[in-house]
Amino acid sequence: MNKRFEVRHPEKLKNHSIAMAKKPSWIKVKAPLSEGYKETKRIVKKNNLKTICEEASCPNIGECWSKGHATFLIMGDICTRGCAFCNVKTGVPFKLDVSEPDRIGRAVSKMKLSHVVVTSVDRDDLPDGGAQHYVQTIDAIKKYSSSTTIEILTPDFLKCDDNVIVQILDAGPDVFNHNLETVPSLYPVVRPGARYFTSLRLLSRVKEEKRSIFTKSGIMVGMGETRIEVSQLMDDLRAAEVDFLTIGQYLQPTPKHFPVKEFVPPETFEHYKKLALGKGFLLVSSSPLTRSSFHADDDFELLKEARRKALDAQKNVNKKRI
Question: Is the pTM of this model over 0.85?
Answer without folding.
Answer: yes
